[in-house]
Amino acid sequence: MAAEKKKYGKIYMLPCPISEGNPYDVLPEANRAVMARLDYFIVENVRSARRFLSAAKIGRPIEELEFAECSEHTSVVDVEPLLRPVLEGRDCGIISEAGLPGVADPGADVVALAQRKGIEVVPLVGPSSILMALMASGQNGQSFAFGGYLPIKPAERAKTIKNYERRAIAEHQSQIFIEAPYRNDKLFEEFLSVLLPTTRLTVAVDITAPTESIRTLSVAEWRKAPKPTLHKRPTIFIFGI
Fold this sequence. Notes:
The protein is an alpha/beta fold. The chain is built from 9 helices and 10 strands. The chain has helices at residues 29-37, 46-55, 76-79, 84-87, 107-116, 129-137, 154-171, 184-194, 219-224, and strands spanning 11-14, 40-43, 66-69, 92-95, 121-123, 144-148, 174-178, 200-205, 213-218, 235-240. Strands 3-2-4-1-5 form a 5-stranded parallel beta sheet, with helices on both faces. A 5-stranded mixed beta sheet has the order 6-7-10-8-9, sandwiched between helices. Helix 2 links the parallel strand 2 (40-43) and strand 3 (66-69).
């Protein structure tokens, strides 16, 4: 008789508000119901995850919950122990610092390992600043690529930007990027310096917050326009033709 296959827990990908301006009471009730029955969470930042779950009013004391942190500093070797409770049959939620877990987020390493081990991963509905910016940008939504973070060194970054611009022109493909909030102003100036005057650049700031702004101009127009204040504000950059 064949041995019975061990039953693993499930991993739920739990979106959280992109900005503090987004009210927690708009969370889908289905998401809230899932969060209410979980007691183990793998999170990018324990403090913000606890704050999120508390504000979401999941109906149980936060002190009863167990948290394991998976950040950009977590090594590949340290990821496997995070899944031990799931392999023992316990369901788990993954929470990013903001937005969708697993997208430009270290939680992707946990999911990659879970997929290799045959653990079921369930994505829940929630906000994605990347897609929301694209929706409102007027850029090509039929073909687009998320480039994530650009290189930090100026020469390498400029070369990479030009490479992406050539792709945008050749394939009519929108190119989407993010940056550490304190480096946003510098990257914006770099785009204005490196990109062709006719390239269209979208700057999407504080998506879902009361201060939200999503604006698309040609690089030539941006060079003449008042510069947006981007320092320490969540920003998505998109360029295309």
